Amino acid sequence: xxxxxxxxxxxxxxxxxxxxxxxxxxxxxxxxxxxxxxxxxxxxxxxxxxxxxxxxxxxxxxxxxxxxxxxxxxxxxxxxxxxxxxxxxxxxxxxxxxxxxxxxxxxxxxxxxxxxxxxxxx
Length: 122
Description:
Blueprint: E1 8-13, H1 15-23, H2 28-39, E2 46-51, H3 60-64, E3 70-72, H4 77-83, E4 98-101, E5 104-107, H5 108-121
Parallel strand pairs: 1-2
Antiparallel strand pairs: 3-4, 4-5
């Protein structure tokens, strides 16, 4: 695939709710379509970003298609153990948008500003 091909991005807000709706209601064709899109996303220069409301909201097969995770501030301390991060990572004083990514604590809104600015200059 040529390097100048535009990247596409699929954003799924609430993939755990999506899975519950389509995987457990007998509408397995929709889940197969999603899994196929995730499996072949790199070949078609597609990036898939998904959020979920709880750490164990999707099964291991679906999780395996996502190569990286960003941990936002979670509701319960036990949720952090599932993601392999310390429960003391965030405090009540942590600002909104504080995340944990690949061993580093970052401010998500700063990343969005960086990528938006970078895209505008290219």
